[in-house]
């Protein structure tokens, strides 16, 4: 919980607010391969990753299509499912043994109602997610696969060491074979 409390402190919450918010979260340990959320389920939890790596994916015609990865300091949630209480369109799976601090939807909604600083924080997190989604969409539409890989090298080089090739390829919108060619060309 230390990482979650530190994260809250870095985002302007007082010690009392950090403790009150922290009490709403519970620790979840996930082993490599465990699911945080299954496609089709309604998301009832939002998680803060203390340790580990996750990927978001959907199954289409027997293929896993990875859309996103999350690591320490990131939040885990299928936003549309969590906010609208609709079936999730993606699965969130642990790629490594992981520790997540999760809050149930009821506790989350209560914090939003009862703690104005939490509501403001929440809006900031949503804005950041919207910008990330927009950037990702823009990059997928306007950059070549090589340019997207180069951007990944520059902005998130740790992913190249931590995320299996087939998931990186999916995020970049190419096949693993094409990604191998790109990597060989750029080196």
From TrEMBL:
It comes from the Bacteria. CDD domains: CAP_ED. SUPFAM superfamilies: cAMP-binding domain-like. Pfam families: cNMP_binding. It comes from Fibrisoma limi BUZ 3. This is Putative transcriptional regulator, Crp/Fnr family. Residues 28-111 form the Cyclic nucleotide-binding domain.
């Amino acid at each position: 919980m230390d990482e979650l409390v530190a994260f809250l402190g870095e985002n302007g919450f007082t010690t009392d607010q950090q403790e009150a918010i922290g009490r709403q979260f519970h620790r979840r340990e996930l082993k490599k391969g465990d699911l945080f959320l299954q496609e089709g389920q309604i998301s009832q939890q939002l998680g803060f990753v203390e340790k580990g790596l996750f990927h978001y994916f959907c199954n289409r015609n027997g293929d896993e299509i990875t859309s996103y990865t999350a690591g320490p300091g990131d939040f885990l949630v299928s936003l549309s499912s969590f906010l609208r209480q609709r079936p999730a369109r993606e699965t969130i799976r642990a790629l490594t043994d992981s520790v997540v601090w999760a809050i149930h939807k009821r506790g989350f909604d209560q914090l939003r109602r009862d703690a104005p600083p939490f509501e403001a924080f929440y809006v900031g997190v949503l804005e950041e997610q919207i910008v990330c989604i927009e950037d990702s969409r823009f990059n997928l539409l306007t950059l070549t696969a090589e340019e997207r890989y180069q951007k990944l090298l520059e902005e998130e080089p740790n992913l190249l060491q931590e995320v299996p090739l087939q998931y990186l390829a999916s995020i970049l919108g190419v096949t693993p074979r094409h990604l191998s060619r790109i990597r060989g060309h750029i080196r």
